[in-house]
Amino acid sequence: MMNWDDMRVFLAVARAESLSGAAPALRMDPATLGRRIARLEQGLGAALFVKSPQGYAVTDLGARMQDAAEQAEIALGRALDMGQAPSAGLSGQIRIGAPDGCANYLLPQVCADIQADNPELEVQILSLPRVVNLSRREADMAITVSPPQAGRLTVQKITDYHLHLAQHRDLPDPADRDALRGRAMVGYIPDMIFDAALDYLGPLARDGVHLASNSVSVQLQMLRAGQGIGIVHDFALPFAPDLKRVLIDDVSLTRSFYLVRHDADRRSERLSRFADLLLAGLKAEVARLEFNPDPGRPD
Predict the structure, then answer these.
(1) Residues 177/207, Cβ–Cβ less than 8 Å
(2) Quick one: average pLDDT of 235-242?
(3) Which end of the chain is more exposed for a tag (fewer CB within 10 A), N or C?
(4) pTM value?
């Protein structure tokens, strides 16, 4: 007879489409997962996956079972929520997916503050150089820089944030945009920009990107090495006091963060309470860090 633990294993493999991809979240090794799936299929007398060197793809039966199991997962989550009184602290595990700028410079403090008030809560931050796949339940909610246009999702705008050109303090300031010619530009690897809103440099990089990374945190360290100039989040500058903004009036960008959730999770009081705390915390943290991104230099 199948139980929820079997379904949990099945769902993890179905979403990850591989044993190795599902193993970390389940804290099992791939070989054990393989045996669990084989035992489950044997009990059903039917295949749930098509196995290949590329991974595990659900069969038609597997797809139908995945839909039903996900509905059961949602219902189980709601049942657990009922056990938490509104006045009680949050508990359990919540995973947030976010682009690495937000994940590195904003979420750690915000989540630490939430967790400090809710010691039974386990918060996980998933930082990926791509859009987090909520349909595969890679996370309970995601922060994005553009609102998704498809899927059964709930989207809330969190706040605007600002970006400017920055460079090491020891370098001479460029007089204007034309003075950027011949300077080493720091930015994203062009073919790895996964959202048009992240194409910060645009025409400024007409001579190419000389120092590139798919991570804004790595880009920040490249700028701190002292050889380039690039676009930096204002909220990240307090973490790099050896950098300064330049051409502030000529180059100024505004972008936005959005909180994206499964539409079905709107019924989860626990996740909704956490989302409210996250929204308020992120908005306040952006405002705090952007208040004076250039220490020692009046804005």
Answers:
(1) no
(2) 95
(3) N
(4) 0.75
- Cα separation, 291 vs 288, in Å, equals 5
* Range of weakest confidence among 97-101, 125-129, 218-222, 280-284: 125-129
Residue 157's Cα: distance from chain center in Å?
A: 15
Amino acid letter, 138 = E
Element (H, E) at 255: strand 252-262
Q: Which two tokens stand for residue 42?
A: 């044997």
> In this structure, how many other beta carbons lie within 10 angstroms of the beta carbon of residue 107?
22
Counting every residue written for the chain, the total comes to 299
DSSP 27-83: T--HHHHHHHHHHHHHHHTS-SEEEETTEEEE-HHHHHHHHHHHHHHHHHHHHHHHT
Q: Where are the beta strands (DSSP E) in the chain?
A: 49-52, 55-58, 92-98, 121-127, 141-144, 153-168, 184-187, 211-212, 228-233, 243-246, 252-262
Please answer whether residues 277 and 118 qualify as being in contact, where contact means their C-beta atoms are separated by less than 8 angstroms: no
d(CA 103, CA 251): 25
> Which H or E run includes 295?
none
232: which strand partners? 164
- Which of 16, 73, 4 has its CA nearest to residue 49? 16
Closest CA to 165 of 154, 151, 153, 176: 176
